[in-house]
Amino acid sequence: MDWWKAALPVFQQAGWIPIPLGPPELSELPPTDLRGLMARMTACDVILSPSSGPAHMAAALGVPVLCLMGLRPNHSPDRWAPLGAGVQVLQYPGAEADLSGGMDRLDPEALLPHLRRLSYVHPGVNQ
């Protein structure tokens, strides 16, 4: 959660309007059911998510997804990444990353070009 707290101002300064859908402690939105989550995701220009169920749901809905995955042999993007033309996987650094806070070592500014590309290549995907 600390990474998300640090990343949100970086995204805002770059002109994005980040709306955390989770973790619940960061989201200002009231809790919702599965249909509500899907509606929220379809309203997004891009979803930034670790490899998770909601990342797969967003990809299935056609929403561009930047999926963050650690470098673990038993959790390869070839097998576990969301599928779809609007999906990009970014593996965060260090083979030992998942054992010692690997995502925390990921610079949020390094994600900005990927988010811009996804929003440019797939503009208006939700319209």
The helix-strand sequence is HHEHEHEH
Write down the Rg: 14 Å
Helix-strand category: alpha/beta
| β-sheet strand percentage | 5-15%
Name of the CATH superfamily: Glycogen Phosphorylase B
Helix residue percentage: 25-40%
CATH architecture: 3-Layer(aba) Sandwich
Write down the CATH class.
Alpha Beta
pLDDT averaged over residues: 85
| Biggest sheet descriptor | 3 strands, parallel
Going across the major beta sheet, what is the strand order? 1-2-3
Number of helix segments? 5
Poorly predicted regions are: none
Strands, total number: 3
Tell me about this structure.
The chain has 127 residues and is α/β, with parallel strands linked by helices. The protein has one domain: 3-Layer(aba) Sandwich (Rossmann fold). The protein is 34% helix and 11% strand. It has helices spanning 2-13, 34-42, 53-60, 77-80, 112-121; strands spanning 47-50, 65-69, 87-91. The N and C termini lie far apart (31 Å). 20% of the residues are buried. The model has no long low-confidence stretch (mean pLDDT 85).
